[in-house]
Amino acid sequence: MVLNMLDGILTYIGITSGFITEGNPLLSALSPLTILMGKLLLSLCLYGLLFTSFASIRSRLWRYGLIAANSLYSMILLLHLLWLYLLLL
């Protein structure tokens, strides 16, 4: 959830400042503000899942799936941070 919000904010800053372009073909036609609002809304929906019975699933497959998704999202966020760092040098 936090990674998604941070990614949305960094994407918004990068697009509006002209440093980056949106690489996702599904999102590239949208305005930067629409992308940010969509990512923030998704984060709120994911946060809401914490308070449902769905979050109580403790299966090994579910746990490994979450670890894999969080790892992939973390790597993408680190790549974005690296790109912004290199552009601001």
UniProtKB/TrEMBL annotation:
<keyword id="KW-0812">Transmembrane</keyword>
<keyword id="KW-0472">Membrane</keyword>
<protein>
    <recommendedName>
        <fullName>DUF5658 domain-containing protein</fullName>
    </recommendedName>
</protein>
<feature type="transmembrane region" description="Helical">
    <location>
        <begin position="64"/>
        <end position="86"/>
    </location>
</feature>
<dbReference type="Pfam" id="PF18902">
    <property type="entry name" value="DUF5658"/>
</dbReference>
<keyword id="KW-1133">Transmembrane helix</keyword>
<feature type="transmembrane region" description="Helical">
    <location>
        <begin position="33"/>
        <end position="52"/>
    </location>
</feature>
<dbReference type="InterPro" id="IPR043717">
    <property type="entry name" value="DUF5658"/>
</dbReference>
<feature type="domain" description="DUF5658">
    <location>
        <begin position="2"/>
        <end position="85"/>
    </location>
</feature>
